[in-house]
UniProtKB/TrEMBL annotation:
This is PGGHG glucosidase. One of its GO terms (biological process) is carbohydrate metabolic process. The gene is Pgghg. Residues 346-356 have a biased composition (Pro residues). One of its GO terms (molecular function) is protein-glucosylgalactosylhydroxylysine glucosidase activity. It comes from Chaetops frenatus (Rufous rock-jumper). It comes from the Eukaryota. Residues 284-340, 424-493 form the Glycoside hydrolase family 65 central catalytic domain.
Amino acid sequence: MADGEGDPGVFTATALPGDPRLLPTLTNAFLGTRVFRDILHAAGVYSGAAGDTHRADVPSPLGLCMAAPGASSPAESFTLNTWTGTFSHTIQCPGYTVTHQIYAHHSLVHLMAFSITIRRLDGSTHPITVQLQSLFLPQSQDLDLSPGPDFQGAHYIYGQTLVPEVAGGPRPAVHMLWSPVPQSLALGGEERERCWQFLTAVAGSEEEAKRSYSAGLSLAAAGSLHRSHVRAWAALRRGCSVELDGPLALRQALHGCLYYLLSALPARDSPRAPFHGISPGGLSNGTRGEDYWGHVFWDQDTWMFPNILLLHPEAARAILQYRIRTLEGARHNAREQGHQVGPGPRAGPAPDPVPSGTPGWAGTGPCPQGDPGPGRHRTLGTLPAGSGGAGGSPPSSRVPEEGPRAAAAPWVCWGCEVSPPVPTGVMPPDEYHSHVDNSAYTNAVARRSLNFAADLARDLLLPVPEEWEDRARKIKMPFDEERKYHPEYDGYSPGEPVKQADVVLLGFPLMHPMSAEVRRNDLEMYEPVTDPAGPAMTWSMFAVGWLELKELQRAWKQLEKCFSNITEPFKVWVENSDGSGAVNFLTGMGGFLQVILFGFTGFRITSSGLLFDPSFPDDITKLKISSISYLGNKLEVTITREEIRMEVTEASQEPLAPALEAVLESGQCFPLGEGRAAAPGSAPSGNL
């Protein structure tokens, strides 16, 4: 199964993987499926009582197989084109080809579509017939569905989920229209080529389903349905463009990660539907028993968010709005666990509503798939996004006034029964250890959140409670003065096995202040004891650490470990290198992208500027990132071994926006303006 033509963004194979979980996903902001699958999922549509809540299986008319009768051993190919967001299956027969093309429309987010095209290659005049086998049955284990009247030639079913998460709670509605699929299609004897198009519209209301289906029909009649999707998808890819010159496998991994992660983001021109977050396996996965049942964890906020913040601030804002929208569910969860929440002086931690499914779920039941449930380590990971992922700021200064208090409230009293305060009984990111005291990662997040809340309140001209910064100062950071490293928690013994990246996250993305010696010691201490069978995102953070220290070969060695989690031929990530855990593992992809966007560039978003300090492993010669979003500006940055070139491609429209300039550590300044490029010399470090 070889990749086609050397194009790093096109993955082609002559056979499908034996494990159907490794088939590529097709997703937009509202709908998702795996190719050749008989179900799809809709954002925010979950079924099952708390503890059993999972993405509701919606029957999919897109599950289809085709065959060319009478053809003897036809040549077949299967292609995922990440540039067009389209999957295709082509059968090459003597005298003709048949192509099945499928996609999740990227601007009409309630629409998915597929087409069958028969093309005659010779001068024959006999009819050509293709057989179609649909996997579709209009029924679901999770939905109470009823048939409705046909609409513009489409069949119609509608219904609700069977079981609400909370007794008496809402049961999300599903309305679906789809083009009926015949058992065969035939190209007439006088025809050279013909394309048949089939649409599926899914929405939470009959009105939206009909509107989307009608819009798709109009585009199809004009011959522009697929073209309109490609145009919208290409605009997103251009706006988040990352290119590098290096090994083909690295470039393929880069484009695969960009495809799967960008597919999960809300469309820029579809603001009406609320965003429902990004689960580890994405919207295409999450049925009962798979991929954490479609819930949203710290994976979104710690591992995916930093990349999104840098490239797509509108989507980053949608993620924060999703967390704000579900905040009341977190508070309810805290109350159920006996904690006091709210603005009072005795407010305790408000655990994130994790695993987070439908809006407001309190997460009180057992967490599926072996996750430790609504334990605090999941709560902590959601805070780096709200407090500025990758060491930075939220995507807009126009944050609700509740923002500072929401960031500070979990930490104002947690552990204050003793002095100095000791956060106790937590599970750090390392899931091999639970109920520990003074987790280094937990305490760093707590300190950061309190200080961020204070800074944000000042920016918004709000009063800053004295206890916020006082509490931050008193939080203990475990540190071994003799060995000069951070123990993972009180009582950690060097050499104890660790499941995944934990203390190494202090250096990045938390940017906890430490010397290069301590940073190195943390990496040296935890790299050999981290489980090689642990989850995929771990090695990315070790790679970023070694890049900080200019240990390029050690960084590359860690990055190479990620490739054991990338499956062929469609670059679908698995959570663990043995194939277990979640598939389409966006968490691992997010970590991998952070190596490229923050490791190779040295980008660090701080309150004073965007720092840069590039470093490449030997096999990489050039990195170009277009449309970096910074203070309302769009930047294009090109880094080679000889120079770093920066250009403002779109200037901020804010009336009092400051002019940008690149400032090197030497103090030399290079003004930046729209259409003006600055080349600050041989791979320098500095800030904007």
